[in-house]
Design a protein that fits this description.
The structure is a single chain. By secondary structure, this protein is mainly alpha-helical. Helix content is 62%, strand content 4%. Helix 3 crosses helix 6, helix 3 packs across helix 9 and helix 5 packs across helix 6. The longest helix is centred in the C-terminal third of the chain and has 34 residues. The N terminus is likely disordered.
């Protein structure tokens, strides 16, 4: 049974009274917005062939991905994978009702939103890891470019480009769903990701948040892992 889908969904027994509930911790919010900026920067540096900066950006994204992956196991409740990954049948059922005007709310990710988070993280991991082996005619880009032959490197360059197109598609879907929530369900999903606060019924069980000390420790570990991967 998924904690956030079944126990914390809005029900009629909760009444109409609402309260401000902290749903997103600062590590998740910083990861979300910083990653958005870095993905845009990665595209622009690649588009204009500023590959030195592109590599730096890729390493920062790698660090963030290391952190978010660990935070998904040892972070706050709303950040943990086991809290928002549900059975596919539940996610598809939720998608079927996407355009309904029901006011059901979930603390953290919705059933379909949880799978989108996983998909984005997986694609970003593949994007960054293929980038470690990429080179082009102008500059040897990836720190691990010399490991494979030219043909294999060319394949990885192709995959690297395809993955960005897949990432762009996922981001477009994500933005479209946020717009649907805003216009159809009258729910603002952007503000909680900025403030961390969401207005929810009084009956919901509040999520547990872990210490800032753990977040800093995991981030330092992420920096070490990213540096180690770059030096292989």
């Amino acid at each position: 049974m998924n904690f956030f889908v079944n126990k914390e969904a809005t029900s009629r027994s909760c009444g109409l009274h609402q309260e401000a509930v902290r749903v997103w911790d600062w590590p998740v919010r910083i990861f979300h917005w910083l990653l958005l900026v870095l993905v845009i920067a990665a595209y622009l540096t690649s588009r204009y062939n500023w590959m030195t900066y592109h590599v730096y950006i890729g390493r920062i994204i790698l660090t963030l991905l290391c952190f978010r992956t660990m935070w998904g196991f040892w972070g706050s409740d709303t950040a943990r994978f086991r809290r928002f990954i549900v059975r596919p049948s539940i996610a598809f059922a939720y998608i079927r009702d996407l355009f309904s005007q029901t006011c059901e709310k979930h603390i953290g990710h919705t059933p379909a939103g949880g799978w989108m988070v996983v998909a984005l993280i997986v694609v970003l991991w593949m994007q960054v890891l293929t980038g470690l082996f990429v080179s082009n005619d102008v500059v040897r880009v990836g720190p691990l470019f010399a490991i494979f032959s030219g043909d294999t490197t060319n394949t990885l360059v192709f995959v690297h480009g395809i993955l960005f197109n897949v990432l762009t598609l996922f981001v477009a879907i994500h933005i479209a769903v946020v717009a649907i929530y805003w216009t159809v369900k009258r729910q603002n999903l952007i503000k909680p990701m900025i403030t961390g606060i969401q207005s929810l019924p009084l009956c919901v069980e509040k999520p547990r948040f872990v210490s800032t000390k753990r977040a800093i420790g995991l981030f330092l570990c992420s920096i070490g892992i990213a540096l180690l991967i770059g030096l292989l």
